[in-house]
């Protein structure tokens, strides 16, 4: 199965819950407010993606590349983040992370201004 190529796609408010996005190219995609609950995004390329206010609970982001993505106000409760590249990812105090997840230890960047 070929990987989806959604580079620069506008997927604002998209319902992608449970979607198969394994190895997908979502670089710089606009995924604000998107529902990605339970999606399989293993090894997906999400570099520079806008994921503000996205529901990413239970998503599998194992070995995904999110460098430079914007996760302000996103819900990553129970997200699988093993091996995910998260350096330079922006997040806010309202971003929900899995229990015991330390964004600073993963070189993520806290942003205090409004989205």
Please describe what this structure looks like.
The termini are far apart. The chain has a single domain (1-110), classed as Pectate Lyase C-like (3 Solenoid). The model has no long low-confidence stretch (mean pLDDT 95). The chain has strands at 90-91, 109-110. It is globular. The protein has a two-stranded parallel sheet. By secondary structure, the chain is mostly loops. It contains no helices and 2 strands.
Report a brief summary of the structure.
The protein has 115 residues and is largely without helices or strands.
Give structural attributes.
two-stranded parallel sheet; globular; 2 strands; 0% helix; little secondary structure; Pectate Lyase C-like; 115 residues
User: How many domains make up the coordinates?
Assistant: 1
Mean pLDDT: 95
The CATH superfamily is known as: E3 ubiquitin-protein ligase SopA
**Adjacency order of strands in the biggest sheet:** 1-2
**How many individual helices?**
0
Largest sheet: 2 strands, parallel
């Amino acid at each position: 199965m070929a990987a989806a190529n959604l580079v620069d796609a506008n997927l604002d408010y998209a319902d992608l819950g449970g979607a198969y996005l394994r190895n997908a190219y979502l670089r710089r995609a606009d995924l604000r407010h998107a529902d990605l609950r339970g999606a399989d995004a293993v090894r997906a390329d999400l570099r520079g993606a806008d994921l503000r206010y996205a529901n990413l609970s239970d998503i599998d982001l194992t070995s995904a590349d999110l460098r430079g993505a914007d996760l302000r106000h996103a819900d990553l409760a129970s997200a699988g983040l093993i091996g995910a590249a998260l350096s330079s990812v922006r997040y806010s105090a309202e971003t929900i992370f899995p229990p015991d997840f330390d964004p600073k230890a993963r070189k993520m960047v806290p942003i205090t201004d409004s989205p």
